[in-house]
UniProtKB/TrEMBL annotation:
InterPro entries, A to Z: AAA+_ATPase, ABC_transporter-like_ATP-bd, ABC_transporter-like_CS, P-loop_NTPase
Protein name: ABC transporter ATP-binding protein
Domain of life: Bacteria
Domain ABC transporter stretches: 2-232
Amino acid sequence: MLSLRNLVKVYPGPVAALRGVDLDVPRGMFGLLGPNGAGKSTLMKILAGLLEPTSGEVTLDGTDIVRNPEALRPYLGYLPQEFGFYPYLTGEAMLLYLLELKGVTAPQGLKKLTAELLERVNLTFAAKRKVKEYSGGMRQRLGIAQALAGNPKLIIVDEPTAGLDPEERLRFYRLLAEVAHERTVLLSTHIVEDVAMLCPRFAVIRQGRVVAITSPTEAKAAIQGTIFEGTATAAELSELQRTRRVTQAVLFEGRNRVRIHAPNAAVPPGFERVTPTLEDAYLLLMKDPQVPSENAEPAREVAR
């Protein structure tokens, strides 16, 4: 179990990136969902031992990894948001170099382990190709291969599907799901679909605080019967955005297709009740006036 207690990070300025994060991350896949600038990458860097918190405690299976970061490294796999591969090395040479840097050992040698990891992430066919020729999804799979080396107990992946095309994203989903069967995987993302596809439970982070801990099913159930959809002109949309809680507004056949949250069921003419999505739930949490930006408030655990 990975446990965070009252984790705070203040940068010079001062800028408070984390404002007292409390979180328990169990075995399996767990999501951390929030917009850019919410504090996700700061949190990931602290957990990976790359950044010291201003205050607070982080423990992995009872070991304090803030005071003793060296205790974490043998058990950690980390895929940062941007991984600095050498473009002119082959995938095989790049992975072998990374394993050597990490100090990984293998009974049958690192070359055999490299081949096994490339096979596991479905990159054997591209082992002799230069990394500069890899697609975005292939580079992410190479990053996961190095994160898996050493059989870590904890794997941290930061925005792993940003920039991937739909096909590559689905491949990466399958790979992460397989990996999570054996260990704790913490997935940090601003993409709601990532969480919906992969995470049995997740936390929502906003302005450096965890504001909800829930599951996709629970989050949608909490707003069941309160989401309505209809069309609106530009002027009507402007009025809806001023007077209603709009969760989505997209152009469809030249008209604005609008989704609103109306818990009292008083809706504009032409709007009909629809099934809520996880994106509806997430956007409502981002707009929730009950979650202040400056005053501390504990995360809300959605009832199971």
